[in-house]
């Protein structure tokens, strides 16, 4: 019967000097692997990420410019409304006896509707900016994840050959068989 210490993937196994083997010390190899993967992601993903962010920045700036144009249009409407208000006030002086209170109500309604319109435009601008930012963040996350997965698959495919694959599968089957024998005993 094969001992578990004779297995190729035993955690305490260290190959002798001058031969090839795997370092199965998880605490020593994971930081190295993570630093290599992160280094590759930063090196290759920086250009794509900066281009993507520049494109999104331009879209956001266009949205802001459009919102500013809408705001300028609202300011023009406000100026027209103020001119109209001055006209209404002039008419109010002429017709003060007949309907001062009604003219005041019209004035307040006009001012309230203009401020409501301005608030709606400001809210629309803020929602558009927030929506665009969220969309950019989600697309960047998806792109980075996709590139990380492609890099990991490429690394795995380049490192895994038939002999290594067969030895790993055989070792795992052997370990599974000894575990199964212990369970049935």
TrEMBL record:
Keyword DNA repair: no
Main location: membrane
CDD domains to which the protein is assigned, alphabetical: ATP-synt_Fo_b
Coiled coil feature spans: 64-98
Subcellular localization: Membrane; Plastid, Chloroplast thylakoid membrane
GO cellular component, one term: chloroplast thylakoid membrane
Membrane-protein topology: Single-pass membrane protein
Record's miscellaneous remark: In plastids the F-type ATPase is also known as CF(1)CF(0).
Physiological role: F(1)F(0) ATP synthase produces ATP from ADP in the presence of a proton or sodium gradient. F-type ATPases consist of two structural domains, F(1) containing the extramembraneous catalytic core and F(0) containing the membrane proton channel, linked together by a central stalk and a peripheral stalk. During catalysis, ATP synthesis in the catalytic domain of F(1) is coupled via a rotary mechanism of the central stalk subunits to proton translocation.
Record's protein name: ATP synthase subunit b, chloroplastic
Native source organism of the sequence: Pueraria montana var. lobata (Kudzu vine)
